[in-house]
Prior knowledge:
The chain is of the alpha+beta class and 263 residues long. The protein has helices at 12-20, 26-79, 228-236, and strands at 110-112, 123-126, 142-149, 152-158, 178-180, 187-195, 200-205, 211-216, 218-227, 245-253, 258-259. The chain has one domain.
Amino acid sequence: MNRQKHKRPISNSRIRNLKRQAGFTLIEAMISLALSLIVTSAMVALMANSLGTSTRVIHMSQLTDELRNAMSMMTRDVRRANYSANSIFCYGYSKCGYAGGNALQTGDIQIGGVIEADLSGSCFSFTLDRSFDGDATNDAVGAFRRVPVNGVGVIEMWTGVAGATAPDCGSAAGSTNWIQLTDPGTANITVFNVSDEGSITKEVSESKTVTFDSRQREIKIILEGQLVLEEDMVSAGTLADTIVNRRLEDTIYVRNDFVLPTI
């Protein structure tokens, strides 16, 4: 006797499972693709923003270093203005530094302008006994100034010959005896102002009948600059008008008083 096999009827739940395994529809695939595109775009934008921020921080550090290095050189020299190796012999001699005295001076700190009429205090000079022989008259005068180089402000230092009474603040940028302290390819020095408004002159009595004037110097330096790279990018329209700008201020108390040539 042949037994006939009976097939089990397919239930509705099995039919639904088979339908679920049929794959994605076109609409579902398009939605998945759109979501993936949105997430990928957000990640790319985030990475680009992070890289741009890192580059900007590096540029800001470069600008800060340029300003700080220039300021450091100026404050170091100005603080020692009118230094003399013979100052040790000034004890008990109140008029030391006067012409003919033990520690010779060639002049007070001089502040003036340069070839551009933007700031009256954009160049200054001072004397210093660089050879440590007790006589500042046979040493090169020190000086710093701001001048434009192809439209970019640059801080320069005077390295003139010994015996020069005053540097040529009005000479062209890059001329003989001036060297650059800041890089015109990195920083545009927009402000350089030197002031001695805090200095005071006091009357000193050497005896009951003879008096002379001595000047205590307080020099204030303001230095401000911008990134040349970002200025170019703003001009080209590839960067909004948000140029990195840094400003440094320093007040220097000159250690050596200046004896005025009056009695």
